[in-house]
Write a structure and sequence with these properties.
about 220 residues; alpha+beta; eight-stranded mixed β-sheet; two-stranded antiparallel sheet; 10 strands; about 25% helix
Length: about 220
Amino acid sequence: MLYLLRPHGWHTYRGRQLTNIDDQHSADRVMIMTGNSVGLALMHTDDIPIFARWNQDLEFTALLGTPGEAHTLEMRQEAYKQNSRMKPDSAEFAVLELSTRRLVGFGGLFDITRALVATMFVGIGEPAQRERGYGTEASRLICEYGFFFRNLHSIKVEVHEYNGQARRVYERLGFRAVGRLRGANLLNNRRYDEIIMDLLRSEFELKHVARFQSLECADD
């Protein structure tokens, strides 16, 4: 049994079963963008203990590109304070499963430059929800947000060479390898390249922002 700190006190978490408080909170969350299986929502303080749990999974943090790293609840609380609000140079989201409206991952854009180039990150934290296409769809939604609302010229990702699954996800979306930092990453005394991939707005088809496109005709 793991005890999680909530705004109204301590509540128990058994395995992956969520409490009634979690269920109510999940049902009340607003999706700002939706796909077929997942949607994007703003982050909430109730997400912090779940993020902390995911970031104590060493396989997960290695795939994110930070091998050996683990986060305490206090570290995730500090990260939330710094990153939960949208800024001119960043935007972070919670990824929710549409069928249950429960938190399954996170993602966003950071280092948005004056030239309108951004870096994207995505992670599906719940092991039971991986390999269902959620990472691909969450990545697509974040790209659509960036290209449509932030007017980005391009989005790049940085992938460790040993994370072949992430490379295949990005390739399906149209990302192309544009360079690599040779031997920039180390795992189990073996060096791996850092692969840099990017996607241009002109190479990407918007699918899930159709309901917003009427904004472009608002003056007609």
